[in-house]
User: What shape does this take?
Amino acid sequence: MDIAKQFDTLWYQGTSLAVVALVTGSALAVAYGSAAPRIAEAQARKTQAALAEVLPKDSFDNELMSDTIVVKDADGREVRVYRARKAGTVTGVVFGMENKGYSGTIKLVMGVDLDGRLTGVRVTGHTETPGLGDKIELGKNPWVLSFTGKSLGDPAPAMWAVKKDGGVFDQFAGATITPRAVVSAVKRGLELYAGKRDLMVADTAPRS
Assistant: This one.
């Protein structure tokens, strides 16, 4: 058999591709393994910054990432809660919520003080339409700041909706579904806090 022709067979091509893929995959695995600690550290810093952004300045002096507790929402899903402490005393909590938007899942983080008032809300992930739904990002529009200071009783529960639905929150021209989803997620977050407050703010030892 002509060795040169053997190189042209599908069997050889497939085997060659498999070998190349194996070698490449191994190399990438080694590279990722050595970079993993740095990636994890960078992600931790990013998460810590996002958590701190929805809390009042100087309202905590602990490591938020290592002071957590897990609770379950109304659907039985686990929600990790980060507790803010000042001189050892819990001053508020931060946790994430999500909801289905116009073109995908919208993820957000929200801070709540001991009285159940929002200290801040930030959208951390979405795939909404650029120029329309992406106005939920603080960098694109200050709309998300309208949640600060709000609670389940202010406005009244029935008013936790966009204005088009009879609520108090603005919607975006051509993109009502997106802000509606965010408002709903934040309200559900406040309801979760109201139902799990004692557990969330319990002055127990920090655990990760």
Q: What stands out?
A: The helical segments are 3-6, 10-53, 177-200. Residues 54-200 form one domain. The beta strands are 68-72, 78-86, 89-100, 105-113, 118-125.
